[in-house]
Model the fold of this input.
Amino acid sequence: MTGDVLVQVKNLTKSFRTGGGLLHAVDDVSFEIMRGETLALVGESGCGKSTLGRLLLRLIPATSGSVFMDGKELTALKGEALRQARKEMQLVFQDPYSSLDPRKTIRSIISEPLRAFKIPKNEQETILADLAENTGIPQEFLNRYPHELSGGQRQRVGIARALALRPKLIVCDEPVSALDVSIQAQILNLLNDLQSSYALTYLFISHDLSVVRYLANRVLVMFLGKICEIGSAEEIFSHPHHPYTHFLLAATPTLDPHQSVDDMETLGGEIPSPIHPPSGCRFHTRCPYACEKCRTEEPVLTTGEGTSGYACHYPL
Ligand SMILES: Nc1ncnc2c1ncn2[C@@H]1O[C@H](COP(=O)(O)OP(=O)(O)OP(=O)(O)O)[C@@H](O)[C@H]1O
Ligand code: SF4
Ligand SMILES: [Mg+2]
Done:
């Protein structure tokens, strides 16, 4: 980590219009991603992780707020300027199968971004060979089709394609969740190796904290569209300040091999609706420490920019 900011997110909000009313998927979120780091984004299903990842990559438009990359405001770009900016940021999906065109060969899939950006043909071959080698795809696989590959091999293809244009930022959205546990470590190791050789910055989305622990430098915890806590992985895993972070960790059995299922504290209660989020602290309906203030006053993140901090009136 060199300590300079690659991505700056300011007051980013995304609401979806639904039959039941406005759904606040990401609600006034501000934080930074440092160049060369892995920032893990964690939280329960539906808290807005994928929406936030897609907003960063400008795959969906924001309702309000802004995203800066290397000082350039992505949220203000249009047309060709946006297309060029897209080279610098890529997405690796959870399910590589559904994101790979079944009618195309692996060669054609990996080199698709090179064709889209009109990289000369002779260079394409060299880049392709390097990508295959660096992601552990044997040359003979290049003429095969996605269905002829295993899940792990397909994820290597998804990663190779994401690397083709030498992006600065990769959003990995649950990149190993669909894979067998035995294959997960291989892909995580690959992502780790590629990070240094390609000078990558990762936003690593996962609901699995044991996976996050493996490679995160910092962790951002979300609940119902808001940041609960952000901080170094060391700090978050050893001294969480926000009760929600604490319960997420306590509910992750693999973190402590001596812990039995009986010892695990469970995170009770239903996740409230993002259409009608609770007043005050959004976690108050599930928080054992909730007081009157929590029901009426929304806690603010202790650092405005969100390098590290928490949003709780009564931190642990
Ligand atoms: N296109 C859409 N239209 C309406 N609502 C949406 C849309 N996309 C996402 N949502 C809603 O926004 C909220 C956040 O969804 P999102 O997919 O970002 O969550 P997530 O944290 O990635 O969940 P998971 O862990 O299940 O992948 C959810 O309530 C979801 O139903
Ligand atoms: S603000 Fe109150 S309800 Fe919210 S997490 Fe902190 S103690 Fe719990
Ligand atoms: Mg998701």
